[in-house]
């Protein structure tokens, strides 16, 4: 956040990126230390909360300067929304990553004898993927093809 503000990036964008990075790091630390993610997020998010803007908005309301207070309230709401969106998008990406990794682990346990003749033919046809990344991707595709094939043909 601070580095982006120093580079004169808008505070909304800086808050979003800061919250996103804090959430990703919090997920990693929560997994590493086997503690709830909230413990790490709260300490990182507190400096991003626009308390000064909210104070200015309330000060202008008390002084009956409603136009200025509305501007501060809107800026506070937009920054708060950016913080929330950073947290939510990071959560969604982490959940997608975890789901993908569990699917890859399941795909590693594919049994060659259980495949039908068509499944083996498809398996051998696409066997040209030899590097590790494409091989894992291919195993996942074959695993889901196999499960779908069994569900529709039984």
Whole-number mean pLDDT: 79
**How much strand?**
under 5%
Q: Could you give the order of the helices and strands?
A: HHHHHHH
Radius of gyration: 25 Å
Number of helices: 7
| DSSP strand tally | 0
- End-to-end Cα distance: 55 Å
The major beta sheet can be summarized as: none
Shape: elongated
Low-confidence stretches: none
Structural class: mainly alpha
Task: Give the proportion of residues in helices.
Answer: over 70%
Structure description:
The protein has seven helices and no strands. It has helices spanning 2-6, 11-33, 37-45, 51-62, 66-108, 117-125, 132-153. The longest helix is centred in the middle third of the chain and has 43 residues, at 66-108. It is elongated, with a radius of gyration of 25 Å. 16% of the residues are buried. The model has no long low-confidence stretch (mean pLDDT 79).
List the helices and strands and how they pair.
Layout: H1 2-6, H2 11-33, H3 37-45, H4 51-62, H5 66-108, H6 117-125, H7 132-153
Helix pairs in contact: 2-3, 2-5, 4-5, 5-7
